[in-house]
Amino acid sequence: MRAGWGLVGLVVALAIVAVLARKQLATTATPQLAVPAVSGAPASSTGTAVEQSRAFQDQVKQQVETQMQARPISEADK
């Protein structure tokens, strides 16, 4: 009898994990994040994954460079 309840508990736990995994996978597959276009970068989201990845990397690189130049280091920060 004890083994039966143990098996029922395992099946219930497995069902809960399966439902949570399905919900998690459904929410990660559905949303499409819109990345704002940077001057010089293509505005459309078409292209291969490699092209999109490269464009996104270039965008992040430009943003980091802009932020690094925007704030000069003062004497108090040194």
What do you see in this structure?
Residues 54-69 have a biased composition (Polar residues). Residues 37-78 are annotated as: Disordered. Residues 37-50 have a biased composition (Low complexity). By secondary structure, the protein is an all-alpha fold. The chain has two domains: 1-31; 36-72. 64% of the residues lie in helices and 0% in strands. The protein contains two helices and no strands. It has helices at residues 2-29, 49-70. The protein is elongated, with a radius of gyration of 24 Å. The mean pLDDT is 80.
Mean pLDDT: 80
Rg measurement, Å: 24 Å
Question: What proportion strand?
Answer: under 5%
- Give me the count of strands: 0
Poorly predicted runs of 5 or more residues: none
SSE pattern, N- to C-terminal = HH
Profile the largest sheet: none
Number of helices: 2
Question: In percent, how helical is the residue content?
Answer: 55-70%
* Morphology: elongated
The tally of structural domains comes to 2
- Cα-to-Cα separation, first versus last residue: 72 Å
